[in-house]
Amino acid sequence: MNEPRYGLIEAGGTKFVLGVADANGTILDRTRIPTLMPDETIGAMLEWFGARGAYSAIGLATFGPVELDPASPQWGHILKTAKPGWTGADLAGPLQRRFACPVIVDTDVNGAALAETTWGAGKGEQVVLYFTIGTGVGGGAVINGRTLRGKGHPEMGHFRLPRHPDDLNYAGKCPFHGDCVEGLTAGPAIFDRWGKTLSDLPPDHPAHDIISWYIAQLVVSMQAIFEPGKLILGGGVMATPGLIDRVREKAVKLGGGYFRSDASTMISAPGLGDNAGLMGAFALAQSAAPE
């Protein structure tokens, strides 16, 4: 293989986005496959990549929780998840065995945060947070150019929030924590309460005020912990027209002028659009390739 080629994977709870990129990050080929049961999904992934040659490295940016410690026998496995059938699924091992190249694993949101820091809305910032609010809620962080990891990876989607006064009777959708961020603001929680997606509800429906208030509470909490230069909000729920502006307005009020970061300019849509996940996988793969 003369020129480096990278395999890119954005593994989500609804779909896997697969890509092949050259050394410049140009995406040469891409596809989407539905997230079904592990054997079927992983088999389709291996088949697609196998039809496209050899790779210098593969970047895997995946939904979690996922084991990130290379020393663990569970490295690259999905850990305890609410997604049926996926607890214990090995994502990285089959790739490493099939293609005999380095595979680097991180969360999808850490990958997107890294891409946005390198090329997108967070470029030039020391601290960048990325949240995806869709089928679930996940949050990733890049601090001084490195994704944040501790004993595991951040689980910001399971942060606990105060309750909106008009939403006190809803127990929450998260099977682990009930009314955490994911249990209150993710797509299934919205549909559970109101029978429609947020985008399909009229602009004056109270759901818009409730969901934007919860997300603004999350933003202000993250300001207190991280003081990010950019906090990027992506995912299907955030595609609701006008939602990001509602969040900005509420976060400014909730912050009370205390923080150095100004929520009105700090909160951003993804600068890379739908490519944030794949470009995060590219950043991971590029860092794993041998010199």
Any overview of this molecule?
- This protein is of the alpha/beta class.
- The chain folds into two domains: 5-107 and 274-288, Nucleotidyltransferase, domain 5; 121-269, ATPase, nucleotide binding domain (Nucleotidyltransferase, domain 5, 2-Layer Sandwich).
- The protein has nine helices and ten strands.
- It has helices at 38-50, 92-99, 108-119, 181-185, 187-194, 206-226, 243-255, 263-266, 276-288, and strands at residues 5-11, 15-22, 27-34, 57-62, 103-107, 127-133, 137-143, 146-147, 230-234, 267-268.
- Strands 3-2-1-4-5 form a five-stranded mixed sheet.
- A hairpin with a 4-residue loop joins strand 2 and strand 3 (27-34).
- It is globular, with a radius of gyration of 19 Å.
- The relative contact order is 0.16.
- The model has no long low-confidence stretch (mean pLDDT 93).
